[in-house]
């Protein structure tokens, strides 16, 4: 039982993605580096570079089991499989 999250992150290398899970909060940060050049023969017509950070944080209604959650990144799409923590049974209190 859990959640499946897809996030489009084109231009990001998977080694630049950081995912943090703390109880029911998920935070995704990534460094974006995009470079683009257009040449005509040996002549440079245009060159662009973009560097920046992407940040996304969201809260779920249940706590997550960090050890069972998974993250995959392919073709510019990050896929998170977020697994809920197992319910803990209640305990009886002794009356003194």
Descriptive keywords:
three-stranded antiparallel beta sheet; mainly beta; 0% helix; 96 residues; rod-shaped
Describe the structure.
- By secondary structure, this protein is an all-beta fold.
- Helices cover 0% and strands 60% of the residues.
- The protein has no helices and 6 strands.
- The strands form 2 sheets. Strands 1-6-5 form a 3-stranded antiparallel sheet, with no helix packed on it. A 3-stranded antiparallel sheet has the order 2-3-4, with no helix packed on it.
- The radius of gyration is 21 Å and the shape is rod-shaped.
- The two termini are 39 Å apart.
- The mean pLDDT is 88.
Concise account of the structure shown:
The chain is mainly beta and 96 residues long. It contains no helices and six strands.
């Amino acid at each position: 039982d859990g959640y499946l999250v897809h996030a489009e992150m084109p231009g990001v290398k998977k080694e630049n993605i950081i995912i943090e899970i703390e109880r029911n909060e998920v935070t995704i940060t990534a460094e974006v580096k995009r470079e683009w050049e257009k040449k005509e023969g040996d002549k440079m017509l245009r060159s662009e570079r973009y560097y920046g950070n992407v940040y996304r944080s969201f809260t779920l209604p249940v706590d997550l089991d960090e050890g069972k959650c998974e993250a995959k990144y392919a073709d510019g799409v990050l896929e998170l499989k977020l697994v809920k923590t197992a319910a803990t049974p209640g305990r009886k209190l002794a009356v003194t």
